[in-house]
From TrEMBL:
Molecular function GO terms recorded: NAD(P)H dehydrogenase (quinone) activity
Pfam family, one: Pyr_redox_2
UniProt name for this protein: FAD-dependent oxidoreductase
Originating species: Parageobacillus galactosidasius
Residues in FAD/NAD(P)-binding domain copies: 5-324
Keywords per UniProt: FAD, Flavoprotein, Oxidoreductase
GO terms for biological process, alphabetical: aerobic electron transport chain
Cofactor(s) the protein requires to work: FAD
Oxidoreductase keyword on record: yes
Keyword flag Flavoprotein: yes
Family the UniProt entry places it in: Belongs to the NADH dehydrogenase family.
Length: 404
């Protein structure tokens, strides 16, 4: 019998977890496994705010995919997926095409600008290693240029963060630690620097415990962040942003605008004609595309409804990894034609949001934590993600061990 061809698209949390678990579960003679990814490295998306602020070097957040896959069992293809043609069981890439018997879509997220004028053109987004590196270098360039110009333009030292959700707050936490270093490095008076966070919702970190939100906002304000809550970004221009609170319109001149207020699934989902909401496919209980039982979706391209709230689970690395584990098990069932497919039941252990190197807030196993305890927990979560994919050797190579 012909070995089934399993093709996995994307080597983020979801795709890489599917790959490493599947290579453990099935033998060389049972299936051909191909993993496709844009780059030959995996990056820890949940660390990108650190690389963007410059508090962690971008090489620390990535590692070669070859470090964690078994080359005897998995063929790696470095290419960019352009489109999936389900009727022909084909994947079209920039430099070739692949056919599959089973497909796993794990292409992750992209920035969603909700049609706000100018954001795509003039704002940065924390979306991958190169984007993070560009943000870090852009901010550094603004600081480096400030003192070399005859006519000082204070707006060079204004950084606007659009969105006080998880990503926005984590980025601000790093920025408030990085800015004093930049001021020392480039002989800049720290009072000249403005870090402004604009959030349209009536609170920062919507959905988080209010007491913890207050803690986070106070900590960040104490370190210099100005929050503009209940304020919407109307437009981004080469000079900065235009915001509105009720009828009040304000222009904020800024050298750097980082948009951290929206994500969507990969555009490849739309290109391929799947029914989706902002690039996210509502999967069946076994993580398959309805009507396409040979296609699984994991991570930020999948949409799973939380039956308790009747709302979609937010896209997280935690869910992407759990989906990857289950997807590998379900693929093994199909490959062996033995056993039964298992439905996806997320096991949400908690959420921890960092506020810089040594501070954080979170709810873990139902308990509220903050400060250094939460920060320690955050690093343990980061190390655990490495362990689950690459075992102790990856933790030793890339782990975070500076706890206090
Ligand atoms: P990704 O991890 O985004 O991986 C997608 C992969 O596909 C990448 O390797 C990419 O290069 C590749 N790819 C994309 N398009 C193509 C293409 N066309 N062709 C080939 N390859 C392609 N979640 C948490 O649970 N906890 C946190 O603390 C947390 N913090 C976060 C902090 C930040 C700054 C950000 C941005 C996100 C954070 N998240 C967090 C969310 C989490 O990172 C995502 O939910 C998670 O990365 C989704 O995993 P994924 O496998 O779907 O996609």
């Amino acid at each position: 019998m012909k070995k089934p061809n399993v093709v996995i698209l994307g080597a983020g949390y979801g795709g890489l977890m599917t790959t490493v678990r599947l290579q453990e579960l099935v033998g060389i003679n049972e299936a051909s496994i191909t993993l496709v990814n844009k780059n030959d490295y995996h990056y820890e998306t949940t660390w990108l705010h650190e690389a963007s602020a410059g508090t962690l070097h971008h090489d620390r957040v990535r590692y070669p995919i070859s470090d964690v896959i078994d080359r005897n069992k998995v063929k790696f293809v470095k290419d960019t997926v352009v489109k999936i043609v389900p009727d022909e069981k084909k994947v079209l890439m920039k430099n070739g095409e692949l056919t599959y018997d089973y497909l796993v879509i794990a292409l992750g997220f992209e920035s969603e600008t909700f049609g706000i004028k100018g954001l795509k053109e003039y704002a940065f987004s924390i979306s991958n290693v190169n984007a993070a590196r560009q943000i870090r270098e852009h901010i550094e360039y603004q600081f480096a240029t400030y003192n070399t110009e005859e006519e000082k333009r204070d707006e060079r030292l204004t950084i606007v963060v659009g969105g006080a959700g998880f990503t926005g707050i984590e980025f601000l936490g790093e920025l408030v630690n990085r800015v004093p270093e930049l001021c020392r490095e480039y002989d800049i008076d720290p009072h000249k620097v403005r870090i402004i966070c604009v959030e349209a919702a009536p609170t920062a970190l919507p959905g988080f415990d209010p007491e913890l939100v207050e803690y986070a906002v106070n900590q960040l304000e104490r370190k210099g962040v100005e929050f503009k809550i209940g304020t919407a970004i109307k437009e981004c221009t080469p000079e900065g942003i235009i915001v509105a609170k009720g009828d009040d319109i304000e222009e904020i001149k800024a050298g750097t605008v980082v948009w951290a207020a929206g994500v969507r699934g990969s555009h490849v989902i739309d290109e391929s004609g799947f029914e989706a909401m902002r690039g996210r496919i509502k999967v069946d209980p076994f993580l398959r595309v309805p009507g396409h039982e040979d296609i699984f979706v994991v991570g930020d391209c999948s949409l799973v409804i939380n039956e308790e709230t009747n709302r979609p689970y937010p896209p997280t690395a935690q869910i992407a990894m759990q989906e990857g584990e289950l997807c590998a098990k379900n693929l093994a069932v199909l490959i062996r034609q033995q056993g039964e497919l298992q439905p996806f039941r997320p096991d949400i252990k908690g959420t921890v949001c960092s506020l810089g190197e040594d501070d954080a807030i979170g709810v873990v196993f139902g308990k509220k934590i903050w400060g250094t305890k939460a920060s320690f927990m955050k690093k343990m979560i980061d190390n655990r993600a490495l362990y689950l994919i690459g075992g102790p050797s990856l933790v030793m190579k890339k782990g975070k061990f500076k706890f206090f």
